[in-house]
Each structure stands twice: as structure tokens, then as C-alpha cells.
Amino acid sequence: MKHNDCSDNNHCDSIIITGGCCEPKVVCPSNSQLNELINLLNALIIAIPTFFATPNAANKLILINLFNQLLDLLNLLLPTTEGDYLKQLVQSILNELQSPNTDLGQLAVLLQQFYSALADFFFSIQTCFAPSTLRLLFNLLTQLISLTPIPPGATGATGATGATGATGVGTGTTGATGATGATGATGATGATGATGATGATGVGTGTTGATGATGATGATGATGATGATGATGGGAIIPYASGTTPAVLVNLVAGTIGTGTLLGFGFSQPGISLLGGGDITLAAGIGDYAFVAPRAGTITSLAGFFSVLAGVSLGTTQVQMQILIASAASNTFSPVGAPLLLLPTFVGIVVGATASGIEPLNIPVAAGDKILVYVSLTGASPIATIDGFASAGINIV
């Protein structure tokens, strides 16, 4: 079955339709159409952030040409519910780009809707290709989401002043008597009285007595008793934050394929996986986001916070944070203690939604140990991609 241009002896791959007589039909793109889709997504990964950074006519034209090519490709496929909705969103994006004064805020909203519809389209054709091809498509979608700016919304109008509340019932109790005021300034000196009569002169001047000898130094007193031991301090707080680089949390196959983000001190490293062996070994491309403990102590708690910037999810998702520790002479970090599960869970993706939590812990730390904080989606979360800002803090006593 064909739905593309095969005139002039052009070679065209077949479009495969699967499903039984009573099952939903799956329209599979050909291999050449799949390759064209991958090339267009790679081009959009460069063109979209470039236009938001420099929204001039040349960059706008590049973006218009790419979305026109994508619309042409979608028109070659047999109609499906997911494909038709995707084409409507592409046309809306083209309409916004072709307006004389493109609204970047409206364009960002349309792109987020386009990414969500693109994920639905990928799921509708997931049986057509190998799992590695589906992972490639979702990795490209994740890059598009993370590289698309989200401009702040306009400040809302100030609400009207509320009505004045009713006057309270009865007279309040008399307040306590105020403290006595400060003493007033000293009055002016009175006039000098008249000089009295001179008294009679005494008989002779007395002899000055001799200076007495210096007394001996007294003995040193006994040392006082040792004071009671002071109360134990609250410990040291170590802060973590993703900074300007959003944390990217991905579950491609629930509990088996997924990546999270290492948190540093104002920066983060996405694309890190803890699945399989459960350890992370520092290497080129991962970077070092750990701090070194200068003394032995105990980690008594882990607190965390996550704020959603964008994402796609097939169901309820939950963010978790995990402490990893490596010994002084090692570059391999292993999970230690229970993970912190942030609440509430996310049912669907709402930009601006937040989750937080505090987990009491009792993890001993030796001097020289290196400590990391890793944020990801729980293994029970469905297929999902969430971008957001993350921050955490640990307490060591």
C-alpha cells in the first residue's frame, strides 16, 4: 500500500498497516520516511534555541522551512488521530512564525503542545520499529524539550482592595502600666552664697606619717571545677542546587531504562543512569559534583525540592533523591540509605508544579569520604520525561 510520490520511477518504501480485523490499525512509516523524520528532529534541536536566542528574519526562515518539511512528511502518511492532531499543531506553529510580529511566549506554548503530541505519535508507531529506534526518537524529543526556553508569563493585575472588616465587640482590656521614665536632667546650679568669716588658724602643721611596707602576695586559689558539657550542635548543612541547568529525569521503560541528574553546588549533570549495577564511576563526560568530608560524622537527614519546567508522562510519576558515597581512594559511588521520595506525585505534567520532602537518616561518614546527591524518577513511574529545577540539603553532625 502506498501514500507517497512514486512517479518518474522513484523508489518508494511500503507503508505497513498492522492489526487484525477488530484491532486498531497501526500505520508504520517507511524506513526512508523514518530517516527523514530523524534528520528533521536533529535540525530542529539546533534551529529552535537559535531562534529564541536571536529571533531575526534569517533564523525565522530556517525554522519555517523545517516545519514546512515536517508538514509535507506528515501529509505523506496515511491519516491517523495522532498524526492529524500533530499536523494541526505544526500548522499553528507556522501561522505564528509567519505573522509580522512573532510572539515568543505563544510560540513556546505551541512548541510544548507539539512535543506532547509528538510523544503520542511515537507511542502510536512503537510496534513498527526496534526498541532502540524508539529510544532514539525519545532521546531527540527530550533534547528538544530541554533546549526550548520557557519565557516568564506577564504579571497579573493587582486585585481590588478588600472591604474593611467589622469593628470588634467591646472595649479591650487595659494595658499594663508602662515602665518608669528616665530621670530628668540636673537643674541649673544655684547662686554662690556669701563668703563666711575666716576661721582661726590652727596650732602647727602635723608630721606626715611614714609609708607602710607592701604586703606579701597572697597564695593562688585552687582551680575551679570543670563546667558541664555544652549541648550537641545542630550539625553542618551542605546545600545542592541544579542552578541554570535544568535537571532532566527520564523513564523510557518503567524500572529498566532511565536516566537522572547529578546535583552540584549551583550546577547539574543530566543523562546519568543508576540502573544495572547501581553505581556511578567518575569519568570524562560525567564530571565531579561530590564534596569531600573533612571529618568523620553522621548524615542525619536529606531534604529535597523539585519544580516542573516541562515534560511528557503516560501516568502518575514521582521524583526521588538518593545519597551516593565513595571512599577516599575511590571514584566509584554507591547508593547508601533509603531514597527520599518527594510528594506530591505528579498526575500528568503541569508546568510550575512542585514536590518536596525530608527523610531522616543515620548514615556514618568517614573522613575523606566523597558524597553525591542523585535525582531521578522512581522505578514505579511510567514512561515519562520531566525537566525542572532541583535543590537539596544534607545535615551532618
From TrEMBL:
Taxonomic superkingdom: Bacteria
Region (Disordered): 172-191
Residue stretches of biased makeup (Low complexity): 176-191
InterPro entries cross-referenced by the UniProt entry: Exosporium_BclB, NGRR_dom
UniProt-recorded name of the protein: BclB domain-containing protein
